[in-house]
Amino acid sequence: MKTFAKIEKNTILGISGSPRIGGNTDILIEKALEGARAAGGKTKKMILNDLDLSPCQEIEYEKVNSNGYSVIHDDIHLIYQAIQECHALILASPIFFGSISAQTKIMIDRFQNVWVSNNILNKPVFTQKKEGAFLCVAGSRRNDFFENARFIVKNFFYTINFRYEKDLFCPGTDRRGDILFHTECLIRAFELGRSIAISSDLSSKNIE
């Protein structure tokens, strides 16, 4: 398992589900985190492709740790920790074959144990209500692809007790760097991050 520095209090966490560093998803989430910092928030980014994550093994109905976390010891525990400690979450993914990326879906599936703990064992895992936002890019311009991704992420946010506050969908961004020609998307991503920081009441905390 990798190590991950403990997240400081009042940090906005960005999770990128793209395998392409410096690609459209990466650029967009960086712009959102830049907006959060401009409003006074601290930020931290996790790249799912850099983590060792096993797909869900469907053992959650048989084995769930007392804390509601997975019994599989891989880097998903870094994500559990980061989500527990962060103040707000911005999740970003490209569209692959009409839905979120495999990296993003693997992460979300690994929260099945949290769903079991919440709904079957009656032991809520993420007890503090927080805010979340979703960024998504796609080469195509099909709204149904974005709606499919939105539905999955909304269910994920519900499971981890995050309000689905905002989203931003940017079509027509297939090749690396195409997002740079979509100035409106970049501006909206910056404002989304800024708004998340402000609505999370971070800017009033004199965070360096």
Give the helices and strands, then pairings.
Elements: E1 11-16, H1 24-38, E2 42-47, H2 76-85, E3 88-96, E4 99-100, H3 102-109, H4 112-119, E5 130-137, H5 143-159, E6 162-170, H6 183-199
Parallel strand pairs: 1-2, 1-3, 3-5, 5-6
Antiparallel strand pairs: 3-4
Helix pairs in contact: 1-6
Describe the structure.
Helix 1 crosses helix 6 (183-199). The protein starts with 10 loop residues before the first strand and ends in a 9-residue tail after the last helix. It is globular. It has one domain (11-205): 3-Layer(aba) Sandwich (Rossmann fold), CATH 3.40.50.360. With 208 residues, the protein is of the alpha/beta class. Strand 5 (130-137), helix 5 and strand 6 (162-170) form a beta-alpha-beta unit. Strands 1, 2, 3, 4, 5 and 6 form a 6-stranded mixed β-sheet that branches. 36% of the residues lie in helices and 19% in strands. It is built from 6 helices and 6 strands.
